[in-house]
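Re-run with default settings, no changes from the original entry. Doing this only to confirm the output is reproducible before filing.
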Amino acid sequence: MEIRNLDSTFFNAWLNAYAAGSDRVIAITERRFRPAFRAAFDAWRATKPETNPHAPPGPTYMPQYKQPAKAQAIALDARATAAFNEGSQAGATADKYVRTTVLLATVLFLVGLSTHFPLHSVRYGLVGLGAVLLVVSAVQLLTLPRPPS
């Protein structure tokens, strides 16, 4: 986009100089054109845009207009999108592992806490709740993708 903006800026300067009739500024501006833009500009001028109502609106609309790094930018953008998606998936998996770790820590806490209650029914309840959380944690661990080795 920066190259296209640069080309547009120089073309606008040329157009203003052309409208003002300043041959000196036209020449200075044309010397600043990139070679690839110059080819498109010359092809556009050959369409006689001053008198031809069917001429393209500007050099950037010509088939000769090339942006040298556009294909590379598209490829790099696709790679960046793929890397971002892969990172998002890895982050979601990491969150699931952390959640399972918290559940396992809760199991340890409940079982340890159960020893402080004199009533056996409370002890059994806490151990039972811990057992349920242990089963839930085990199921989650089995369904999660394995960490990379």
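The chain has a mean pLDDT of 92. The longest helix spans residues 70-114.
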